[in-house]
Design brief:
It is a single chain. The protein has 11 helices and 10 strands. It has 267 residues and is an alpha+beta fold. The protein has 2 domains: 168 residues, no CATH class; 79 residues, no CATH class. The strands form 4 sheets. A 3-stranded antiparallel sheet has the order 1-9-8, with no helix packed on it. The N terminus is likely disordered.
């Protein structure tokens, strides 16, 4: 029997599929007539590192950033919470971070912006199969950058745009969203959805959750890790993914202290 094609996001279903070694022409700069056109009327799904970097770039907490700059769509089809960038309310629906000379938060630009014109999807988890990324090429008619002379492979483009470094910080996140627990369409309940959203996206609230409660006393944690997490955002984010595997899927990534209260041992 032929293997069923993996389910893909609707936005990618009509796009040309490519491999990491395939090349394509692309050159985006202020001189192209379409400069910034791709920064309007577009759905930008944010990753945990996107939210963290943008909040730090703006000098605000992740909680405030999520409230003021993001959308949190809820549909019956979502198995996990997602966070999207909120665009301007004007008819053009332009990105709020676009200025006359381009992106005003360029160094902290989201993963999706770094990837363009390449798209990527990770197929849903299937028993015994390690999900591999699938790449696509956006070929928008308005984009003059794709008519440039410079050619890139998908791998070279991702490296040039800093995508590989960002994804290295989010290995744990991808392991969660493609976890075998979701095979067969299983969904998290409301409590676990909230846990996922806090730990992945609202890192400042998660830090308060860890250090403003008995959390540290309830689990066996490396002393140097505890100290690092107080100030090191990336260390705390990696720990958040580790904790989620325990809290969502009961993986043995955390150990409850022997002297923890009985109620805490069930947390």
């Amino acid at each position: 029997m032929a293997e069923a094609a993996p389910e893909l996001p609707e936005a990618l279903r009509d796009k040309r599929r490519i491999t990491e070694k395939d090349d394509f022409p692309f050159s985006c700069h202020p001189g192209v007539p379409c400069f910034n056109h791709c920064c309007a009327d577009v759905n930008i799904v944010l990753t945990p590192v996107d939210v963290l970097r943008l909040a730090r770039r703006l000098g605000i907490s992740t909680t405030v950033f999520l409230e003021e700059y993001c959308l949190h769509p809820i549909t019956k089809d979502l198995s996990l919470p997602i966070v999207m960038l909120r665009l301007d309310d004007d008819p053009g629906k332009e990105c709020r971070f676009v200025g006359t000379e381009g992106c005003t938060v360029y160094e902290a630009r989201p993963w999706a912006c770094r990837m363009y014109p390449v798209g990527m999807a990770i197929p849903p988890a299937r028993a015994g199969i390690e999900p591999e990324p699938i790449y696509f090429l956006f070929e928008d008619d308005y984009c003059e950058g794709r008519r440039g002379d410079r050619r890139w492979t998908v791998g070279d483009w991702r490296a040039d745009q800093g995508v590989l470094e960002q994804e290295a910080h989010e290995d744990g996140f991808r392991e969660i969203v493609s976890h075998p627990w979701f095979i067969g369409g299983r969904r998290l309940d409301a409590k676990r959805m909230e846990m996922f959203h806090m730990a992945c996206y609202d890192l400042d609230r998660f830090r308060q959750f860890v250090f403003g409660s008995t959390f540290v006393q309830r689990f066996e944690l490396e002393p140097d890790l505890v100290e690092k997490m107080k100030d090191d955002d990336e260390e705390l984010l990696r720990f958040a993914f580790r904790w989620l595997k325990y809290a969502l899927f009961a993986e043995p990534t955390m150990t409850v202290r022997e002297d923890a209260p009985s109620a805490a041992r069930k947390a």
